[in-house]
Amino acid sequence: MQPLLFEAITVDEVYLPLLKEKNVRLSVLRLDKMHPIISGNKWFKLKYHLIKASDEKKDTIITFGGAYSNHIIATAAAGKLFGYKTIGIIRGERPKALSHTLLQAMAYEMELIFVNREEYRNKEIPAAIGENDKAYSINEGGYGPEGARGAAEILDYCKKENYSHIACALGTSTMMAGLVKASLPYHEVIGISVIKSKITPGNHLNALLSSGDHLKKYRINETYIFGGYARQTPELIHFMNGFYKDSSIRTDFVYTGKLFFAITDMIKNNEFPGGSHVLGIHSGGLQGNLSLPPVTLIF
Ligand SMILES: *Cc1c(COP(=O)(O)O)cnc(C)c1O
Fold first, then answer.
1. Which of 145, 146, 168, 272 has the most crowded Cβ, counting Cβ within 10 A?
2. How high does pLDDT run on average in the chain?
């Protein structure tokens, strides 16, 4: 297993005619480059959980996710790398053919337990696992204060004072909470939601923020969901291929494709004042593209 390569993280500026025309700069924090599997934000969200598990002398990590979950595969790989048994509680009945994500998680020796959607919703540890006081449980997607604390360290990998805006994709909102915590008073942090939800994502976010964090500038944009979580449209795929041609940056269709579509669309719509310098967080997740038909993307 490849170790985590923090020194591989770079900040890459993107040059597009649109940016020149609008006098806006766009730089990308390449968390996707640190590890092929524990990519992007998932390591940062796991870090303090793993430290806690070690302090509490646990030997097993239990967590939750869907069949294509970047969090599941990252937890399986991190368990392998740091010597924990891992158990993934997977949403839905066991399918005949397992997804590439789950096959890879199994290759990292994660034990998979499938629970139906109703049981999954309650996020209870199934009785099949039995009592295990050596087990440490992590929420779906790494949601929670430990996850946010780790995500706050993402901005240590760039010169954050150079930017006016910080934009990220938003699922559970844990990463965004960390970015808000680490942001400076003149920053605006923008979360591009990729999930249609009855509960507004703002509630999840606010629960992770302190009263001091609430004074910072941040907002969630829910106009770039593209039909729902892990849904895609020809327009999105076309954008991702074009963005790759222009910048050599590969994006995934679940999170970062929607993020960079949103950033460029917001620039087109003059939502960033001239002179802005936007930092887009490339939070990884490229393994998710394996679930697309092979001819869809040019990279
Ligand atoms: C999980 C994930 C996100 C969402 O992070 P949250 O902390 O759940 O909001 C964004 N981008 C990628 C690539 C992810 O895998």
1. 168
2. 95
